[in-house]
Amino acid sequence: MVRGDGDRYTSVMTTVPTGGSAAPTNATDLGVESSSPDDASRPVTLRTLRRFVREGTPFACLTCYDATTARWLEAAGVPLLLVGDTAAEMILGLPGTIHAPLEFMLTLTAAVKRGAPRTFVMGDMPFMSYQADDSEALRNAGRFLTDGRADAVKLEVDRSFVPLVSKMARAGIPVVAHVGSRPQQVKHDGGYHSVGRTAAEARRLIEDAAMLEDAGAVMLLIEATPDEIAARIVERTRVPVIGCGAGPSCHGQIVVTQDLFGLTSWQPAFARPIAAFGEQIIGTARQWIAKVRERDLGPHPYQMREGELEKL
Which of 53, 75, 117, 234 has its CA 20 to 30 A from that of 188? Predict the structure, then answer.
């Protein structure tokens, strides 16, 4: 996933005030699992997502990088979390997604799954963890399932990766094929840009998606395309399709959580904030600063045992 600017995506400043009703306390409140009273404790699996598709129920997805946030997002009923390589920017403060280290991504993926054990967790394979060699790619993808406890891995691919996706599928690795704008290609492409704005480009993208599904991809993620192209892909394929700035036709929608929560200074136009948590953090921190300056810390919880102070 990418967080663009310039002529790629129009930036949106964080000015949206907080508000709205309180978040639900469990997945059942959002209808994530609603066929029986026991469904709230059942994990979200590929079967769950396929059922959403059959029933015509759009499902929400968010990025996540830590166990604490994962726990709250699972409580809210978000059925799918992506441990995206955007962690390079959001967590490490690096200038782009290609800087996300493999071991770091494995650690974060496992943390998110521990925090949200019933949520479908997708691990994002970082730059150069799967491009150089198919055998290395298989081993790294396998580590996302074992060390990272992921339910699936996401790869930024086109038709040239069909043999690799086929090998991973044969090995039992659930692959989410990320097509359209591919942030790991940013230096090769000379910058971020939307994809599928010409008929020829759109036709190739639709064909890529179909070929990757035929190779064994269990889901597709489309980034930064016109809605008409995403709609064609949804019609052409049979797997769940997640959109990231690809319009409302997709079965699921994903954005970076920090963008949605108003924790970044700008966001892609498709990830408009619906909260202003950044402003709340500033306000809370300022209250803490004032309390410390005034020595207003409340009753101190630790006391010496009776008679011990005199001995000191």
Answer: 234
Q: What dihedral angle (degrees, nearest 10) is formed by the CA atoms of 97, 99, 100, 103?
A: 160
Residue position matching structure tokens 């809210």: 76
Show contacts of 155-162: CB within 8 Å, 24+ apart: 155/125, 155/130, 156/182, 156/183, 156/184, 156/185, 157/182, 157/208, 157/212, 158/182, 158/208, 159/207, 159/208, 159/211, 159/212, 161/212, 162/211, 162/212, 162/214, 162/215
Alpha carbon of 125 to those of 14, 87, 121, 136, 224: distances in Å? 30, 12, 13, 12, 19
Q: What is the pLDDT of residues 243-299, one digit of tens each?
A: 999 999 999 999 999 999 999 988 888 999 999 999 999 999 999 999 999 999 999
For the residues 206-211, what does the mean pLDDT come to? 98
Architecture per CATH, 12-278: Alpha-Beta Barrel (3.20)
CB 154 within 8 A of CB 125: yes
DSSP secondary-structure letter at 265? S
Distance CA 171, CA 161 (A): 15
Tokens for 214?
């035929």
Q: Any idea which residues carry the catalytic annotation?
A: 223
Q: pLDDT: is 36 or 63 the higher one?
A: 63
Q: Where are the domains of the chain?
A: 12-278
CB-based contact 73:113 (threshold 8 Å): no
Residue with tokens 């991504």: 105
Assess whether pLDDT exceeds 90 at residue 27. Answer: no
- Which amino acid belongs to residue 96? G
| Amino acid in position 265 | S
Element housing 60 (H / E): strand 59-63
85, amino acid identity = D
DSSP symbols for 223-262: ES--HHHHHHHHHH--S-EEEESS-TTSSEEEE-HHHHTT
Q: Which of 107, 47, 53, 49 is nearest to 78 (CA)?
A: 49
Q: Is residue 193 scored above 90 in pLDDT? A: no
